[in-house]
Amino acid sequence: MSAVVLERVTRSYPGGVRALDDVSLTVPAGSFVAVMGPSGSGKSTLMHCAAGLDAPDSGRVLVGGTEIGSLNETRRTELRRERVGFVFQAYNLVPSLTVEENITLPLRLAGAPADRQWLTTLAERVGLTGMLARRPAELSGGQQQRAAIARALITRPAVVFGDEPTGALDLRTARGVLALLRDLVDGLGQTVVMVTHDPGAAAHADRALVMADGRIVDTIEKPAAGYLAERLTTLETE
Ligand SMILES: Nc1ncnc2c1ncn2[C@@H]1O[C@H](COP(=O)(O)OP(=O)(O)OP(=O)(O)O)[C@@H](O)[C@H]1O
Question: Which UniProt keywords apply (predicted)?
């Protein structure tokens, strides 16, 4: 099963920038993929197209087997809400809600029933058992990001996209969050696609895709941080 498939996706912006240039990609379910590349290489555009936040000019995008382009706007929003999870650099938790209310918010937005057992499992997995009644301000940065990760997983999405999910965290806390993402892939079979500038973060993934000028120029299995850092330095100075 493939969680995400891109087939010959092209996306240009006014002014002629080809942010994605004929990109094809298959993300197997239950795998952890890191997307790297110099600034402006197309990482965000790739993620936005893969998540149905942006529509390609040509090519096809499938999430959990459903072709996004075939859906109308309402169905596309529903698919995004139910089948795609997001984790950003800024945790985007609602300050006035408790941690539990934040985590279960996507279910309420989707009009889906609460799933106590899944909430309990997730809280345990992300290490927030006993903190569910707190407000986000009463959590550390790492704990807030863990809550955001639990929120991304509450709908049992086909894929979770991370946009620099550890960008705001200190090194040690970041490593903890990356170990958690790894654990969610290994333990729950979750699929994770993470955009990052940090080779050390990408080294937690099963595979790193390296982008340059709107194309995937390298696919590295079991990436090592040192090798990735070198590869990126070469691209940035080319
Ligand atoms: N809304 C837009 N309008 C015009 N050009 C855009 C727009 N968004 C992105 N671009 C251009 O498309 C290209 C790819 O941008 P994108 O944001 O996908 O790159 P990125 O790899 O995510 O960069 P960064 O690492 O700096 O976030 C860049 O040349 C960028 O300037």
Answer: ATP-binding, Nucleotide-binding, Transport
